[in-house]
Amino acid sequence: MSIEKEVAKKLLEIQAVSLNPNHPFTWASGIKSPIYCDNRITLGYPEVRKLIAKNLVKKIEDNYPEAEVIAGTATAGIPHAAWVAELMELPMVYIRGKKKDHGKTNQIEGVLKSGQKMVIVEDLISTGGSVLEAYQAAVDAGAEVLGVVAIFTYELQKGQANFAQKKVPFTTLTNYSTLLDIAVAKEYIAAAELDSLKAWRKDPEHWSNNK
Hints:
Blueprint (H helix, E strand, L loop, with lengths): L2 H11 L3 E3 L5 E2 L5 E2 L1 E3 L8 H18 L5 E5 L4 H11 L3 E4 L12 E2 L7 E9 L3 H12 L3 E10 L3 H10 L3 E6 H10 L8 H9 L4 H4 L1
Parallel strand pairs: 5-6, 5-8, 8-9, 9-10
Antiparallel strand pairs: 1-4, 2-3, 6-7
Helix pairs in contact: 1-2, 1-6, 2-3, 6-7
């Protein structure tokens, strides 16, 4: 089994991913979604988090072999970045959503040297907004960001366009299309629901009006 299918299967088994096209979830942005992915659930499953960490390391070694420092996005990317950094024996930092309003007003916590080659670890990618803000904060702090690795992507066109606009490469362990394939095969969803789930990925902002 490919790593894309294996990770998708595990996310469904531990209920880190929920699929419900008939009773959609509401994201913070207001978008109605038939899927909710909470990779924080993986923290409670040592076997799954080890699988994730090992394969994030492989992604970094294959795609960004020059990495010198691993960065985690606050908060969901932090534990995965820590395990990756430990396995790779590399320094780790984490990047806040915004600068603190007290103390040293840091946005990046840890030791980051100017010019260090960085890989950012994120838990999932939707539109890419938060991780691209982290990318910009790292660049402003003097890092050379090689790219982003994440556990899961919704494969939204807006997210792909945002990464392309910033010219930031990214790679993930699994994705929405693979997850749907596994969900149908394992009967987490009915085959009849597949068209609606695929339609959401193509146009999430208008999906709830066209169901």
